[in-house]
Amino acid sequence: MIQPLTVVWDFDPVLFRIGTFDIRYYGLMWALAILIGAKFFDNFCKREGLPSKVSESIFVYGTIATILGARLGHCLFYDPVEYLSKPWTIITGFRDGGMASHGAAIGLLIGLWLFSRKNRLPYVWSLDRIMIPVGIGGAIVRMGNLFNSEIFGRATTLPWGFEFVRSHKWVTEYAPAAVHPTQIYEALCYVVTFAILCWLYYRKDMARRHPGVLFGIGLIGVFLTRFFLEFIKTEQESFEVGWALDMGQWLSIPFIVLGVCMIWRGAKHSAAAASIPGQHAASAAAAKRHPAEKQHSAAEPAAQESPVAKSRKNHKKIRK
User: Fold this and answer.
1) CA 72, 73, 75 angle in degrees (round to 5)?
2) Which of 133, 103, 124, 132 has its CA nearest to residue 34?
């Protein structure tokens, strides 16, 4: 009998060791995802005429909120009895693993709300822009899961099936059968989501024209992917055995619904809903650099102005 082609995955998850202390690729992937997110926000702020202190503060709020949310999410969603009975292990057991993407999402939403309040920005402005680095960051973290030989799929005879020889779960439950490398599937889907969001932001100016749409598309791209791939993943915890939908799918549904609502809401609202301090100054600076663009802008139909702007102009004319 001809054996199907498979990939024998024997990757050492440890980058380097110093005595009993080790640095793992998984942690490096998290750090890389956070740094890329900070770099993107720096680009957004420069592009939209916001001061550098705004991009600096997102690094603090975003990093702390994401890591705390990811850790607490794992503890409360997947093993609440253990961690509630020994709450100190939430911190002391950090190096033993346990980070949940849904918890990271909730933590990031809270962190962005605090960030927006501090910098006097519309919440939807922050939500739209964060989804771009979330897309590529999610793909990078999933590669960290691959390096850890964890969160893989069920048995498969496809030629790209993986044998995770360093995984105790694979050795005891699946060997010698190959399994779906769902980490790669998920990472690829996130990269596609990232590419779509970049195109909409940089080429179509969607974040300014229809606030909320980028956030909605990002949520659907990330969590609808997660929802469907869970059908071929192995259960992360024993209590999920026999469930029609596992914990990851139940937690994904609210984010998918929110994504649909944000797209519907954003499609109906104009750019005036998310105007931010500094954008007008940036537009003026851009007009000085490109006089032709300024002339073109002045020739645009007045119908594009918001009702509030029209009302203010009329009021000024009456006073004159």
Assistant:
1) 65
2) 133
Q: Write out the chain's pLDDT in tens, 320 residues.
A: 455 678 999 999 999 888 888 889 998 999 999 999 999 999 999 999 999 888 888 888 888 898 888 888 878 887 777 777 777 777 767 666 678 888 899 999 999 999 999 999 999 999 999 999 999 999 999 999 999 999 999 999 999 999 999 999 999 999 999 999 999 999 999 999 999 999 999 999 999 999 999 999 999 999 999 999 999 998 877 778 888 899 899 999 999 999 999 999 999 876 655 556 555 444 444 444 444 444 444 444 444 444 444 444 544 444 44
pTM reported for the whole predicted model = 0.80
- Coil, helix or strand at residue 24: strand
Q: How far, in Å, CA of 26 to CA of 195, rounded?
A: 23
Torsion on CA atoms 97, 100, 105, 111, rounded to nearest 10: -40
Tokens representing 293? Answer: 């663009």
Tell me if 84 sits within 8 A of 254, measured CB to CB: no
